[in-house]
Amino acid sequence: MAKLLVIESSELLRQKYNELLEKYTDFKYDVVSSYGEAQNLLKKSRYEFGVTDIEVDGAKPGVVISLMNRHNLAPIIFTDEIDEDFLEAYESAQIADYVLKESDKNIESVIQKLNQLQKNKQQTILVVDDSILYADFIKQNLILHKFKVLTATNGALALEKLENHPEIVCVVTNHRMKVMDGLELTQKIRQRKESKSLPILALTSEAEAASAFLQEGANDYLTKPFSRDEFYERVYKNITTKGA
Q: What's the CA dihedral at 78, 125, 136, 218 to 10 degrees?
């Protein structure tokens, strides 16, 4: 059973977490009020999922995120406000998502995101890119959301991965690659009976290539550069459309 650590200073919100986690999830969970409590638990146990405010009792703002990251946790941030200064300061931090504390009912959004992350553990996405650095960037963002990730450095190798891994639920492919580029890969995938409905998300730095991808059968595209939020939005849109 997956373990979850929630750090929340408000007693009212802690009660709400306990109520909703018990009712709507299968997590084994701990809900604590301070940095110190969380630190002690993290020394004793391994957690797969985390939720925290930016500021919790016993620590300066943001320090709790560093604590969780040191224990291989990429938390969902549930906080009153997220400003540009914070985003810039924690640009390299491992953070799965954000939810604003506009109402205690927004804890329901946190619960939904946690359940989605748990579901993602059973879903495999194939990333196709001949740039090791860029492929790793995409891979790490998907891993933050608990997806299983396979990679290929060109379209030909991607077709081999699809043949050997029928569990793949989505292909994220770059455009320009040696051996076989993203457009040809998309065409080949659509020619295969078993993958005609497999979602394909194309990534390209050439705006005019977008229509070509759609004509070849891609479901969606993103023009570089794009934000992480845009990327997640398109991934979820397409795997949901498939019925995953």
A: -110
